[in-house]
Amino acid sequence: MKLIIKAAIQIQKPVETVFEGIVNPEKMTQYFIAESTGRLEEGKEIIWKWPEFPDYGCPVNNIKLVHNRSVSFVWDNDTTVEIDLEEQADKSVVVRLSEGEKEVNEAGLKWYGGNSEGWANFLASMKAYLEYGINLRTGAFEFMRKKQ
To answer: Is the model's pTM score more than 0.90?
Structure first.
């Protein structure tokens, strides 16, 4: 048995808007990351940084895109993230995300708890930004910065 994270949310925006919200760093910095070295594109490696962890850069590579349908990548050197976009009849989009997989052990359980929380936050923050222009991360994780 392996640990796999799964999360989903429905966003009331066209699939083109949701896809661009994931691959475009100008959009992602409004709800998820502080900075990126580039747009998600096949064949590239980029680095993401978060406001609460300014000294940590996470490599994102092995990027695969199916325009307006899916995004996948390997991040932090060994974990695959897959994001699938399912356009609905009302033109909203169900975003389904999975990340994995890890062994069922202490390190795997720590990863599972932290990243499950992170991906739920990612989806809620993306919805708030794309639907309402609100950045839920602003000031939300200042307490984590003080721990460093």
So the answer is: yes
